[in-house]
Amino acid sequence: MTSAHQRLGERIEDFRGTRGGHPAQPAQPPGGRAIVLTCSDYLAIAEHPAITGAMIASLRAADGTAPLPGPCLPDDHPQIRLGNEFARHMGAGAGVLCPSGWAANTGLLQVVAGPDVPVYLDVLAHMSLWEGARAAGAEIAYFRHNDLAHLRRRIEVGGSGVIVADAVYSTDGSVCPLEGLVDIAAEHGCLLLVDESHSLGTQGERGEGLVAALGLAGRVDFRTASLAKAFPGRAGLIACDRPGFVDYFKHTALPAVFSTTLLPHDIAGLTAALRVVRDEGWRRERLAAVTGRLRRGLAALGCDLGEGDTQIIALQTGSEADATSLRDALASRDIFSAALFPPATSVRRTLVRLSVHAGLSDEDVERVLIAFREARDQRESSPRTSAPIP
Asked: Hey, CA dihedral for 216, 104, 245, 95, is it positive or negative?
C-alpha cells in the first residue's frame, strides 16, 4: 500500500513536471524599466502618500493594546465605523469587515446557505465562494458562465437558494449580467450574492462598485469584496441591507468567531484609501484609457482576448506550456504577467493575465504591445511550432 508520504511526493513531482514548478526567472530582478502587470492595484494607489502616511502615523501611535476577538467589538470601534463607512460608500445599510476577502465569502455562505438552501454558482465564480458553499453543506449547482437561461433551469429543478456571481471575473475580466441576475433572484425568491472584489473602486462615479453604478444596490442582498485589490489593504468586506445580519454574522460565521480585529495601521490605511478612491476620479479615467488602448492594440495583433472588456486582460492559451512560454517571453523583455492554471482557472483552461493599472504611461502601453509583437514573431519563426501567439 502506498503511504501518504509517497503520495505527497508523487503530487509534487507531477506539479513540477507539468508546470516546471517555478515562476518566470528574468535575467535581472524587476528594476526601473520593468512593467509589472501581476498585481491588482488598479488605481495605482498602494504607495499613495495619504495612505502610507496614515499607516505610519498609526504605527507610531500604537499603544500595545492587544487585538480583540471579532464578536466583542464595541459599536464605536474603528473597525466597526469603517465597515459602516464602506457600506455607505456602496449605498448599503450596513457593512462588516473581515480578515480577508476569502474569509468574507466563506463565512457569508456558511451562514446563509445550508443543506436546505442550495447554492447556484457561476462556474467562474471565485474559489472562496465554492469553498463557502461546501462549508455550509449546501447542494451546489453550477451554471455556465453568464448563462442566465442555464441558471433558470437549475433553479427550476433545485428551488429557491443563493445565486452567486462575481461582478467582474478575476480570471478573464468578463462582466456579470447583473440586471438579469437580479430579475431571476426576485422571480424565484433567491438570495443574490455578488463579489465586487474587482469592481469596487474601479466602477462607478466615485468607485462605489458595479452594483451601485447600475442602480441595483437595493436589489442585491449581499456584496462582498477583497480590500486587497483597488483598495491596497488586508481585509474583506460584506455589505448588505438586512437588519440584524451583521450581529448574526459576527456571532455565527466561523471566520468571524475565530478571528481577531484588524490591526490599527491596516484600518488607518483603508480609511485613507477610501478617501483617495472617492476623491481622485481621474485615476478611474486613466485606468479606462490605458485599458482601452492596450485592448485595441492586442486585438490588432491577433490576440484572443475572450469576452472581457475591463482592466483584467486575459489571453487564451492552448496549454500550460504555451502560457508559461508566453509569460517567460514577456518577462525577458521586462514585462511581467501572470500565467494562470487550474485551480486558479476552470479545468482545462489556461491563460496569461495582464492586470492593467492607472500608473501606466502611454510609453508603457507601447512597450507592452512591442513585447507582444516580438513574442509573436519569435514564436511564428520558431522551427518547433507554427502556432500563432494566443
From this structure: negative
* Domain-embedded: residue 172: yes
Nearest residue to 188 via CA among 163, 221, 220 = 163
- pLDDT tens, position by position, 235-270: 999 999 999 999 999 999 999 999 888 999 999 999
In a domain? residue 235: yes
* 192 found inside a domain: yes
Instruction: Provide the edge-to-edge strand list for the sheet that holds 191-195.
Output: 94-98, 232-240, 222-228, 191-195, 162-166, 119-122, 140-143
For 65, residues 6+ apart whose C-beta sits below 8 A from its C-beta are none
pLDDT in tens, 28-46: 455 568 999 999 999 999 9
Q: Which residue in 248, 232, 228 sits closest to 240, CA to CA?
A: 248
Contact assessment for residue 91 and residue 208, using Cβ atoms and an 8 Å cutoff? yes
What is the model's pTM?
Answer: 0.90
Name the H helices within 100-230: 101-112, 127-135, 148-158, 178-188, 210-213
Does some domain include residue 220?
A: yes
Residue 24 pLDDT = 47
Domain that holds residue 123: 64-279
